[in-house]
Specification:
The structure is a homodimer of 113-residue chains. Chain A has helices spanning 8-16, 19-30, 35-41, 46-58, 81-109; strands spanning 33-34, 62-67, 70-75. The radius of gyration of chain A is 21 Å and the shape is elongated. Chain A has two domains: 1-77, Arc Repressor Mutant, subunit A, CATH 1.10.10; 80-113. Chain A is built from five helices and three strands; from the N terminus they run ααβααββα. The first copy, chain A, binds a DNA duplex (30 and 30 nucleotides) through helix 4.
Chain lengths: 113, 113
DNA sequence: TACATACTGAACCAGATGGTTCAGCATCAA
DNA sequence: TTGATGCTGAACCATCTGGTTCAGTATGTA
């Protein structure tokens, strides 16, 4: 069951693993923005911000369009559906395992069955 | 609004950004396992697997305990609650923005209001 | 005691990451 | 046409990552 092809989850989770990039997504949730606006907001060079936007765009979380000199960034097509469902599945497994553990502990403490 | 302190989300999302580590979590969801069992399952050296487990442990996703020579790995305290809620908030924002976009597009196509 | 097993730590490696500076190029405004 | 603005690409840098090998140490087992 080893996974050899890179999953799209790799890219999205990696994109989300950076506070600046999560901040950019939240910012874009409040409205579209140019590279320079984002760069100023996050106190970074244009080049640096462009790289972050590139990572987000690669992951499908941001879409950009250049008009004139200005490249406008907005939220992209990826809705994080697969990511959400992976995490939900994990949380269910976690609950099952820890419920089982709780039962074992309860048994150990009051084994009147 | 720039985030300077590293958020715990950084560590968990980074931990989830690797297919091997997601696989280890799924494996541990089916039952506890030693480092060597995991290493064999994912065709990797003990040292390599130990590093992955270290990353997961650091993120709170795995807990380990050494008894004798064997270090047993099990799911850790972190339930991915914050991660799930960050993603849910994002999905809601996304829906709002794209509903708004849809309305604009609908207006443009049939502006009879 | 002797040998195998299970892990551990240090060192190394290639490639990715998160930033920078610098030198362009295109576009808009005066 | 001149100058400011906005972005882009190349090059560089330090650090992190995902793996390895090799040389231990500790623990079981015969």
């Amino acid at each position: 069951m080893v996974q050899h092809q890179p999953s799209p989850l790799d890219g999205t989770f990696a994109a989300l693993a950076d506070a600046t990039r999560r901040g950019v997504l939240e910012q874009l949730g409040r409205g579209d923005a140019s590279i320079s606006v984002l760069a100023e907001r996050f106190q970074m060079t244009l080049t640096g911000m462009k790289k972050h936007v590139g990572v987000l765009e690669q992951a499908g979380l941001v879409r950009t369009e250049k008009v004139g000199r200005v490249r406008t960034c907005r939220l992209g097509p990826r809705r994080l559906a697969e990511e959400a469902s992976w995490i939900e599945r994990y949380r269910q497994t976690w609950d099952v395992r820890f419920d089982a553990l709780d039962q074992v502990l309860a048994q150990l403490q009051s084994p009147e069955s």
